[in-house]
Amino acid sequence: TWLAGDLAGLNWSTLQTALVPALIGLGVALLIAPRLNVLALGDKVALGLGVNLVQTRLLGLLAIALLCGAAVAVAGPIGFVGLVVPHVVRRLVTEDIRLALPLAAPVGALVLVLADIAARTLVAPQELATGAMTALVGAPLFIFIAARVFK
After folding, report:
1. Residue 97: how many CB atoms within 10 A of its CB?
2. Are 74 and 15 in contact (CB under 8 A)?
3. Burial code of 70-91, b = ≥16 C-beta within 10 A, e = fewer?
4. Nearest Cα to 100, choosing from 114, 92, 90, 109?
């Protein structure tokens, strides 16, 4: 069930193993969040304000790799939570990455728990994989967000 993205069968050992890279990734992400706000204004503006573009992007990739790796190690490929939730938080709550980043984690956890509950109850006594439920809801939302961004 891990391949389909599921929370069934999780144990504390798995969570503890993933906690270290997740915390390091979160620390790196919070460290570069102010620079990401400036980078969102464009490369020229960021360079003019003294942001090291290469370093910021490399640290961003490191944070992404650690956070995604930890999440996938625990729950499998439940991708749409990580793709959609940060965009929704930034659109509905704040554009400031320094605030959106810490808010996206609990909102993502809530969305994942709600998707898991729905996957377990909608077709009871059968269970859908949580990844299937997040894809059913997340794919249309992601397409909507992408269509608005690329207009």
Report:
1. 22
2. yes
3. bbbebbbbbbbbbebbbbbbbe
4. 90
Domains along the chain with CATH numbers: 2-149 (1.10.3470.10)
Q: What is the pLDDT of residues 32-58, one digit of tens each?
A: 999 999 999 999 999 999 999 999 999
Structure tokens at 109: 């956890």
Tokens of 132: 């299937």
Q: Residue range 93-115: average pLDDT? A: 90
Contact 39, 95 (CB under 8 A): no
Of 7-11, 14-18, 48-52, 69-73, the range with the highest mean pLDDT is 48-52
User: SS3 letters for 4-41?
Assistant: HCCCCCCCHHHHHHHHHHHHHHHHHHHHHHHHHHHHCC
117, 116, 88: which is closest to 103 by C-alpha? Answer: 88
Distance CA 63, CA 57 (A): 10
* Per-residue pLDDT at 30 exceeds 90: yes
CB within 8 Å of 85: residues ≥ 6 apart: 104, 107, 108, 111
